[in-house]
Amino acid sequence: MDRSKEFALSTPRLILRPLRSEDAETMYRYRSRPDVSRYQVWRPADEAEVRAFIEKLKGLAPGVRGTWFSMAMTLRENGLMIGDVGMHFPETESTQVEAGITLSPAFRRRGLAAEALREVCRFAFETMGKDRVYASVDPRNKPSIRLLERIGMRKEVFMPASMVIRGELVDDAIYAVRKADFRPGGAGRS
After folding, report:
1. Using CA atoms, how far apart are residues 109 and 151, in angstroms rounded to an integer?
2. How many angstroms separate the CA atoms of 183 and 162, rounded?
3. What is the C-alpha to C-alpha distance for residues 58 and 61, in angstroms, rounded to an integer?
4. Is residue 190, in this structure, part of any structural domain at all?
5. How far is CA 144 from the centre of its chain?
6. How many other β-carbons are positioned within 10 Å of the β-carbon of residue 99?
């Protein structure tokens, strides 16, 4: 049985559900934009690459060590896919989860990214029993840093010249929130 088909997280405005083959075109459209992927390691070359990525995730459930569990971020009102959010579960036994998010530019500045990330944190803490959720971010990506801070994450580590993005050596910063410090509610624009 494919347990990933049963999985979904919901918020007042969003449904976060496993990616489907039919999401490939939409995902490619926003993920391939230079303004969206500027600070991200993955910029798909074509829709076929996105389709292969989605195919590789089929049947995966959250919590499998060494994997990213990626979900479509969809509007509750009409099912429209507006971005994707993922949880990375480290290879070794861990009480932490890495979170990542990509939002289509047409849906920015509405608080939707913050709503999705808060739900991912809530799920990690309350359902999975994790103690810490963290995110890796290029320090030049000020909007993403504001988003992470808005949901209660604080900068823990700065690593100069520690990542390569499309051939460029860049800095990396780790932002995190501990279960004891997390507040699931709260307004905010993202």
Report:
1. 14
2. 31
3. 9
4. no
5. 11
6. 23
CA geometry: angle at 37 spanning 31 and 40, to 5°? 115
Torsion of CA 53, 58, 61, 64, to 10 degrees: -50
128: domain range?
3-181
Span 55-73, average pLDDT: 94
Dig out the tokens for 176 from the structure.
């995190």
| Interval 11-29: pLDDT, tens | 999 999 999 999 999 999 9
What confidence score (pLDDT) does residue 104 get?
97
Mean pLDDT for the stretch of residues 178-184: 93
> Which domain CATH number covers 168?
3.40.630.30
Which DSSP state fits 106?
Answer: G
DSSP 152: T
Is the residue at 137 inside a domain? yes
Per-residue tokens: 54: 């989605």
**Count of structural domains within the chain:** 1
pLDDT for the residue 186: 53
Is residue 22 in a domain? Answer: yes
pLDDT of 188 reads 38
Q: Residue 4: is its pLDDT beyond 70?
A: no
The mean per-residue pLDDT over the stretch 45-49 comes to 96
Tokens of 152: 């209660």
**H/E run at residue 75:** strand 67-75
Contact assessment for residue 71 and residue 84, using Cβ atoms and an 8 Å cutoff? yes
